Amino acid sequence: MSTEVDYTPLRWQSHDGLTLEARDYAPATPSAEAPIVCIPGLTRSARDFDEVAPWLAKHGRRVIVVNLRGRGPSGYDPTGRSYKPATYVRDMQALLKHEGLEATYIIGTSLGGLVAMGMASANIRQVAGVVLNDIGPAVDPAGLKRIASYAGKTPPVSTWTDAVAYAKFTGETAFPDFKDADWKKLAKRTFRVDENGGPAFDYDPKIFKPAPAFAIKIASFFLWRKFRHMASKRPTLVLRGAISDVLSATTVQQMHDRVPTLTSKEIPGVGHAPTLDEPESRNALSAFFLS
After folding, report:
1. DSSP-assigned beta bridge partners for residue 203
2. Among 52, 63, 125, 128, which is most buried by a count of CB atoms within 10 Å?
3. Best CA proximity match to 188, nearest among 275, 116, 283
4. Interatomic CA distance for residues 129 and 140, integer angstroms
5. Cα→Cα distances 74→14, 19, 113, Å
């Protein structure tokens, strides 16, 4: 099935005056179901959903793919102080208000999943259901250490060959079976095209601030409460990369223990985070959204 579906840029204002932007994929034959909002990971943009968003729209679902503040064409915070989950939740609430939406489904990759849990905690009525893509209430230290090794750092990347090499350097742990074409696709999703046709980093380096271990433990305590509140009240699917260093199999089992109605699927051969283009990911999403 072709996934070529045009999107319309969607812009709205944050509470602190930033112009934020999303991609709005309108289905040819609209469904009565609530729209799906896709929220990318820490250093990622709406391009991560370039294939899955039009695929869902082809099946009748309106899909809104956001660029969080400081990413893609969304506004940057000149101080850098607002780059935190609570602010992202507030931005998503402003989006729903702007579009007159009472509730949406959410697909949240990594950080996007934390934002989804925050939205459900703030107002469960705004959340119809959630897909957590390789994220849970506990994050493995190994994954945090790896992400900290590159997030917020922008080494020189002047050609698309450099961009592909960077994508491979930061992603080879997660995607050991990727071929050349896959790395080129990942590079195109990682970098924007600058005015000269070359690659440019597409996020504000200020978005990442390492947190001390005690702060991570405290955050995890509250995340477990937010997760249980969300998943016990709304349909929730967890996707885990089988070799993920961020979401462990043990954490997924603990999530099931706390919420027995939880649905999960392990995606073979990938780590953090599944691209959602994998056949296993599509099958799980199809069962969650389209069955």
Report:
1. 71
2. 63
3. 275
4. 25
5. 10, 6, 19
Which one, of 13, 23, 28, lies nearest residue 52 by Cα? Answer: 23
Mark residue 134 as left, alpha or beta (left: phi above 0; alpha: psi -120 to 50; beta: remaining): left
Exposure letters 12-44 (e unless 16+ CB within 10 A, then b)? bebeeebebbbbbbebeeeeebbbbbbbbbbbb
Single pTM value for the model: 0.95
Count of CA atoms in the C-beta half-sphere (13 A) of 249: 5
Distance separating alpha carbons of residues 150 and 173, to the nearest angstrom: 13
**Residue 230 to residue 77: CA distance in whole angstroms:** 29
Mean pLDDT by 10 residues, the chain (291 residues): 74 98 93 95 97 96 98 97 96 98 97 97 98 96 86 87 96 96 97 96 90 65 94 98 97 98 98 98 97 78
